[in-house]
Amino acid sequence: NYILKNKSEKPLSEVFIHERIPLESIAIENADLVAHDSLYSTYLFQFKKALQPNDSVKFMFELKKELKGYEEDNSIVKNGSYINHSSFEPVLGYGSGLEIRNRFERQRRGLPERIEENNTDAHIVIEDVKNEKIRFETIVSTSSDQTALTSGSLIKAWSEDGRNYYHYKSKDKILPVMAYFSAKYQTKKTTHNGISIEQYYDVKHSFNIEDVENSTKQTLDYCQENFGAYNFDHIRIAEIPAHWPFGGFAHPGMISMVEDRLYLTDQRNPETFNLVAKITIHEVAHQWWGHTLSAKPVAGGSLLVEGFAKYTEAVIMEKMYGKRALFTLSENARSRYFTGRAFASELEPPVYRVTSQSYISYGKALTVMMALRDLIGEKLLNQVLKTITDNHRNINKLEANSVEFLDELYKVTPADQHILIDDWFKKVITYDLSAEDSSYKALENGTFEVTVKVKAKRFETLKSGEIKQISINEPIKIGVFVKHPCLISKEDTILYLEPHQINKETMELKIIVDQLPKYISIDPYGTRSDENFTDNLLSL
Ligand SMILES: [Zn+2]
Questions:
Q1: How far apart (Å, rounded) are the C-alpha atoms in residues 392 and 228?
Q2: What is the whole-number distance in angstroms between the Cα of residue 291 and the centre of ligand 1?
Q3: 149-179, pLDDT tens digit by residue?
Q4: Tens digit of pLDDT for each residue in 478-513?
Q5: Quick check: 119 pLDDT over 70?
Q6: 523 has pLDDT over 90
Q7: Which of 102, 244, 353, 423 is the most exposed place for a label (fewest CB within 10 A)?
Q8: Edge to edge, what strands does the sheet with 147-149 contain?
Q9: Which residues contact 2 (CB under 8 A, 6 or more apart)?
């Protein structure tokens, strides 16, 4: 049972519906079914009396999922069902996402060219998405040996006719990306500052449960302190089977985590990069980046969702495990960017116009966010993120966009920093940084003077695809270490890590440190898109 509301300014005379799974029944209050195409799975309803703006009607449908013959379905399994709303819910209205995309096929059928992007900053629509936040209330039942989960507060649970029933209801409106979960779960629950952290997992998969709980707490603390209130009084994390092809997915107040990528990861050696913490932080951070700050489905939107989640992941990982975690994350982001860029079939957009290029949203977006953090400071950057989050917190429509983010940044930063902000977010610029000829000498007062020649070049990829060298004038950090920067944990001291204004292709720098130096590096924690990173570091 759904409630459909006419959110337009005009009376609505008909509704077009597309089914994803054949429906057993479908009905709309005060409307007649005037056309049904079973081949293309479409329905057309006509209102008996046009639906006026802001008026609403009931919409009911029933469906049954049965596998026929060799048909496969990963969502309903014996133990570990995971059913996304988007896999069964009928689609309302015209969905441009279902249009034929192939240019030649369109020509052959005499269809007009498909305009995927309207190229202005104010309105860069990619898909005709009509989603906005909704009220959600559901009753779900499962077999007597399983627990059923979904988004919303649990209002009531009971047993009836040999089945377990659960009534869930969301307190406020939520993004309509719910899913149903059902399995024989082991549970671990704890309350952290008024938020109930609930884990649901297979009894044999309890290895990383403490890590998940701990990183959930750290993320809730950091995000609430820096980006504002959490939307729910609970966070549920549930295991789903290994056949799902992703690491995890953030539903409202509820996260799915995949069996082999989280629960079966071997984290017994504390020296190895903590993948469990990384995945957990990322998905919990999406409760802010996606669920609280909901991006308009336009170019640049995934900077606000994936880019900000990657940023939060990196900052919290650094706080938990030290710079070595940052080294791994920035290294991954950089190599993902350069690999994706090399294989890209279309011209690379700047970060603020990213669409479906994951090498930018998960790659370069992190690199530029970390550069921005170094430039303006974590506190100010987080303040900007909080401002736009607060602006959208109580808005049901998905309206936040990257232009608004940049506008907020300009407001709180001096004009001379806007050039660099634009270079990183609005242009496609790569770097070639390296360190050469480094040496040190012991000074009489017991300190050491390190000399290094740094080389720095910048290149801009123009809209024509041509790459040309451009000048450089920006602060870049130089680090001096007693051990390799990829090994620096929270307990280790760093001899020196400060920004230097790099404004020539070759510069000689002198740095005083108070212990015997072992390594020197330009941009040791990868805040610039520099394909050859190994020549940034020299051992002394
Ligand atoms: Zn993500």
A1: 12
A2: 12
A3: 999 999 999 999 999 999 999 999 999 899 9
A4: 999 999 999 999 999 999 999 999 999 999 999 999
A5: no
A6: yes
A7: 102
A8: 81-84, 179-183, 147-149
A9: 58, 59, 60
β-pairing, 195-201 vs 234-240, is parallel
Quote the tokens at residue 325.
Answer: 């975690």
Residue 528 to residues 134, 213, 329, 366, 423: CA-CA distances in angstroms? 40, 33, 13, 10, 11
Contact 185, 160 (CB under 8 A): no
CA of 515 to the centre of ligand 1 (A): 41
Q: How many A from CA of 437 to the centre of ligand 1?
A: 41
Q: For 244-256, what is each residue's pLDDT tens digit?
A: 988 889 999 999 9
DSSP string, 482-528: SS-GGG--TT---SEEEEEEE-SSEEEEEEEESS---EEEESTT--S
How does 475-486 read in b/e, with b if 16+ C-beta sit within 10 Å? ebbbbbbbeebb
Q: Could you tell me the domains of the chain? A: 301-425 (1.10.390.10), 429-539 (2.60.40)
Helix ranges (DSSP H) in 347-401: 358-359, 365-376, 378-392
Q: Which two tokens stand for residue 213?
A: 């709980």
Ligand 1 is an ion; residues with CB less than 5 A from it: 306, 309
Handedness of CA 207, 210, 212, 213 (dihedral sign): positive
Ligand 1 center from residue 365 Cα (angstroms): 12
Tokens, residue 475 = 């602060």
**Residue located via tokens 């920004």:** 499
- Kindly give the distance from the C-alpha atom of residue 339 to the centroid of ligand 1, in angstroms, as a whole number: 19
Is the ipTM above a cut-off of 0.95? yes
Could you tell me the distance, in angstroms and rounded to a whole number, from the CA of residue 292 to the centre of ligand 1? 14
Whether 273 and 328 have beta carbons less than 8 Å apart is answered as yes
Give residue 142's identity as a one-letter amino acid code: T
Q: Do the Cβ atoms of 229 and 253 come closer than 8 Å?
A: no
Q: Are the beta carbons of 109 and 100 closer than 8 angstroms?
A: yes
